[in-house]
Sequence to fold (1316 residues):
Amino acid sequence: MSGTSVRSMARSPFVLVVGAVLTWFIAAFLVWPNLNILLATFFPDGSFSGRAAEKLFSSQRAIKALGNSFLLAVALSVTVNLVGIFIVLVTHYFRIRGSRILFLGYASTFIYGGIVLAAGYKFIYGDKGIVTSLLVKMFPGMDPGWFSGFFAVLVVMTFATTTNHMLFVANALKGIDYQTIEAAKNLGASPWTILRRIVLPMLKPTLFAVTILSFLTGLGALSAPQVLGGRDFQTITPMILTFTNSPTSRDLAALLAVILGLATILMLAVMSRLERGGTYFSVSKVSSALQKQDITNPVANVVVHAAAYILFAIYTLPVVLIVLYSFADGAAIQTGQLSLGSLTLDNYSRVLTQQSGLRPFIVSVVYSALAALIAVGGLLFVARLLQKYRNWVATAFEYLLHIPWILPSALLALGLIVSYDHPNPLVGGAVLTGTTVILLIAFVTVKIPFTLRMLKASFASVNSSLEEAAAIMGAKTLYMFRRILLPLVLPAAAAITALNFNSLLDDYDTAIFLAHPLVQPLGLVIKANTDGAEGVEGVANTFVYTVLLMVITGVTMYLVYGRAGRRGTSPKRGRALPPVSSAAPPPAVTAVSGEDSKLPAAPAR
Amino acid sequence: MIRLDNIEVSFGDFTAIPNLDLHVRPGEFFTLLGPSGCGKTTALRTLAGFIQPAKGTVRVDGKDVTRLPSDKRQVGMVFQNYALFPSMSVWENIAFGLRVRKEKPADSDHLVRDIARRVDLSDEQLAKNVAELSGGQQQRVAVARALVLRPKILLLDEPLSNLDAKLRHQLRQQLKDLQSEFGITTVYVTHDQDEALAMSDRVAVFNKGVVEQVGTPQEIYDHSATEFVCNFIGDSSALTPDFVAEVNRLSGADLLTDANSYLRVEKASLNADGGTVVGLPGTVTSRTYHGLHSRYVVHSHGADIRLLLREDGSPQPEPGSTVTVYFQPAHVLQYHPETGAALQREDQAVRLP
Amino acid sequence: MRKLQTLAAAAVAVTLLAGCGGGSASPASSDGASSAPAGGSGETLVVYTNSNGEGRGDWLTAKAAEAGFKIEIVGAGGADATNKLIAEKNNPIADVAFGLNNMYFSQIKAAGALEPYEPAWAGDVDKELADGETYWPLVKQAILLGYNSEKISKDAGPRDWTDLWTKDEFKARYERVTGLGTATAQLVFAGILSRYRDDSGDLGISDEGWKQVEQYFRNGSPAVAKTDLFARIASGEVDMGQMPSSIIADREKSFNVNVETVIPSVGVPLAVEQIALVKGTKKKEQAQKFIDWFGSADVQGEFAQKFNSMPVNKKAQAKANPDVVDFFADLKQQDIDWEFVQENMGAWVEKIELEYMT
Fold:
């Protein structure tokens, strides 16, 4: 496995073609633009300037915000795992009454996030929130502003970011060989021991991966601290955004971004080191499907049921309120006063009857879908090669493909503009600014690291003898890829495509710099209609757009997961395929994009 | 030692086992044999406590364990894929049950090393990760893990089915040796009749949730109680009524012509070497060379008689030549065409209550 | 098979996008020449602005179409639009930019992304409000300190920004900004810091000036994301804060509060929204015509009427809301050296973000 030589790699024409395309793409769109912009910020006059570091490290506020971001990242890595594992277990492992309903509630974080999510929680637990009012009535001495600061931010972000657990940990759990659980039972292990000693250790690689994601989410936290952090708990991301937009302070933004990027890479390295130690997947070739476990202890059973339904309420209340508030007028939303009689369709008719109408929705859907498909489609080949060949060339390519992780998307966009606003031989002498292509390129590049990691992991689960079998029967590389490998990783690829699609739908940071003026995506329109400074209706519009986005992302997730679910339940297909395919999406996800960690910070920035 | 009485197992609308009675004697190597989906694994899992029967009782050593969970039944189990815990080392795998029981660490270590020695695992292997072991070593770990808790019964669920032929043969012997060394009552599930015949003290042949026959390997082979058993075990040629009538005519035997009749391949021959043989002429339709022997198909009175001929260097008939097929009429197996039950059997295998 | 379908879908989508956008550097070749009495060629003008919210963009697009201009508005925040214009200077996409204040336009001008042009209505506006060369004033906006007049009487109210942190009764009762990304916030600080100009001080500001900033942040109640100041005033969380003049009437109505504004003795910082021609535009002639049209007394008057703004064009003021005009007539404008402010604003924002914002 470990040492496919570079020479043997260079012998395959398939590898050469993919390698050539990849080299060009990396050089043209990952290295050159970002090098340009970093040089411009760190070497303003051709010589290195240490100004940024000096400024930054002498600023108490910056250091504190940076510290808060790291604190949040670490805390979140713990809490998200606790809640995430719990909800995965109650929906997929234990026999809990109504687990389907619970699943839908917990899955609500698939379809919304960002400032609106934080606002939703504030409606409930904030100083004028429903729950707070109730509590204050019961305990008159209570501080109505109890839900703020680090604690509130951590709580909200914990519940907002269990999406990855629901996707990837749940999937890994399904892949566990049930016979090992029966074996442990037979050896006298209690349900708790089985969970702790058998099930969780087998989930380790996936848990490592989602821990990285949680860490990144904490580092990039934006909206929850803004809404709930109060004076004492502000994070670094708002500062990065401010400095990115100011040409004279851009070096500070770049430096901060590089610091976060380095932390991310360090985290990645630590996790891969931890992961390397053990074997986590069933060593057997035949495995049997997981069956739900009864919680035998009646007290524990009641407690788990109660906790599951309390969490369900915590997850669903904000969504319900956001949908309700999207029908209320802006002032009602801002002051938190809601009466059923005041709900009207005005907000929706205002948003949908603007002159731009549905066009931005279509533009965004097309852009996001194209970018998601291209990223996944192109990286399918790349991920396969990187997974198959392990040598220094492959490693170098892999690291280069992670460049978009290190820089915030606004800087990536600026880099593209600076590099391609004049004829550039790298793209055949074309000028890219002002074309519809440049935004697509940016969308594809920002999705590369996430897509690559996920795809590589899913290829890793494919039995290599399948490929050998096809090769013996005379299948050509491409044919084999299409007919043998692709179907096996397709469920994972579809899931990744859907996630990419959803996260690009409301992009603002890249679109603002790169969108073609006549083909403006949704993010720009949302921004124009929701900025606080531009009217009371703005906030109402935010809610309307959030609900509309929820509908689109909900439909996407249904198309991918609803259909995959149906396919999975069909016994014919489940039986006919070798076991590798039924365990479809990635068992080991080594890491996911920093960009996606900002996914919860979606609709309005 | 083990008694299953009136066991009924259903999954939803589907009744996997309608009514099962089985008795396994102490120290016995007892095999549940049958094609896939016949209910043999279901029976084993019911015995292990992974499946609750809808009716009936399971007794181990006289004690009713029907409602007891798996770990309270004193049964050890080796799974089809061994179900080794991938996140643990070999030592940890074997010690798992001991640690669950909260044995003292020193005792655990002693017990683990002791059992490891007896299944031939070295100290070095104990420290390894299970993924680093070969299939045979993994099997020994699985057996050690089950035996270290000193169960009264060892259950083996097709433990050889994933291995290649050579390893399978080797491990078959290894398992059998381990069983006789430990002297533990063992219930073994397999679909491989070869395995069942070679390893078992007694075999229960399953078909569609029903036990067709229980007996020693030789009993079920030579005196298959039903047509299903006859077909499932060994290799035999179906005889035509015409053929049977001719046998009766030549030998004066009392075979029924309207029964379903079979003749095992090894019972037929082209040489008449003594005994109460009868010879029927026929034409060789095919010959396959196997080195040790050749397989012949001889067409005679509408029946295709298959037989083996030892390749001892003497000249062998070629396809198209006319030969005589010799066998003893007593070796003809006859079954009732509707019920499939064996006919004219005086030494019927004992069916235990 | 599935992959083929996906490919086909992608191909269709690409065609669709290309069809929408023209896929070339000039987004011009759109369908059908419109009946263009004033604009002529019917090419689409790309207009960058930060002033497209609350229906202004749609209104302007419709009005321009009536006048024969086909325009496409690209909305972005002031800082974003500025960055975009500067980044695209080698191959501009925009033809016209408007709505940004003098601070932003002077940055863009300094980057060399503006083309000098003197509009037909140049004589109707006060040249002092712009650079008199590349960008020209459209709308005046006063950056005010407002307080809840139902809670605080005129006598008890603050007289100047500095009262907020020097008088105990206002401490923690005013909203302070949590970021300096917005034009309004930057203008507030331009107004405060300009008073403490000291060329030997840090970034041209005396220690006393920086102390004011420190106090401002220490004593204010931080703004809450996505919660309007007026909403906080209505709920009694705070009583005062910064507000641009044009939004006051509207917000008072929405949140049912009454706000009184403070006119400090040094005057009020005025933000003047400007319009300019983008250097390198391929539709120069038409863009100039559009500027002439948009800044004209008629259009500015209608715009003022519709959106309660204060037009700079003297002839347009007749059509504007009289209350607004009166308010500006009485208003004392703070004398601010915009050149000095523009030169230093980036550094000020950075210093404030790093050192004073807690």
